[in-house]
Amino acid sequence: MDKVAAKVTVSALLVATAGVVAQIVAGVNFPPVPPVFFIQLVPAAFVYFGRWRWTPALAVIAGLFLTVGLFASGDAARLTDTGLPGGVGGSIGLWVQMIAVVVATVAAGVALVRR
């Protein structure tokens, strides 16, 4: 596994989690323990602590799941409509989260290819 790509993957997933925290602070409705924390942090932990060649695949799967879920759930409207719950802060948090998720997904793909 490419160590630089793995570090970028983990860092991007942590930034994505910070984007979720920003959304929560801005007032976007999340469950008391948001599942997205597990979807982002479990792959980050496996990539960081695991030395198996397949661990970046978890980050790729999580990234695809979150990206498809953004559009399937209808939350993509929050990217541009600041009149929705969370307002500007929620929109910025979602942008941060999704850009970081895309970066993590690409970096994890690179880590898989360069193993």
Describe the structure.
The protein has one domain (3-113). Helix content is 73%, strand content 0%. It contains 4 helices and no strands. The protein has helices spanning 3-26, 35-49, 55-72, 87-113.
Structural class: mainly alpha
- Distance from first to last alpha carbon: 4 Å
Overall tally of structural domains:
1
Number of helices: 4
What is the oligomeric state here?
single chain
Q: What are the secondary-structure elements, in order, as H or E? A: HHHH
Mean pLDDT: 95
- Major β-sheet annotation: none
> Which spans of ≥5 residues are poorly predicted at pLDDT below 50?
none
Amount of helix: over 70%
Q: Report the β-strand fraction as a percent range.
A: under 5%
Question: What is the strand tally?
Answer: 0
What order do the helices and strands come in, and which of them pair?
Elements: H1 3-26, H2 35-49, H3 55-72, H4 87-113
Helix pairs in contact: 1-2, 1-4, 2-3, 3-4
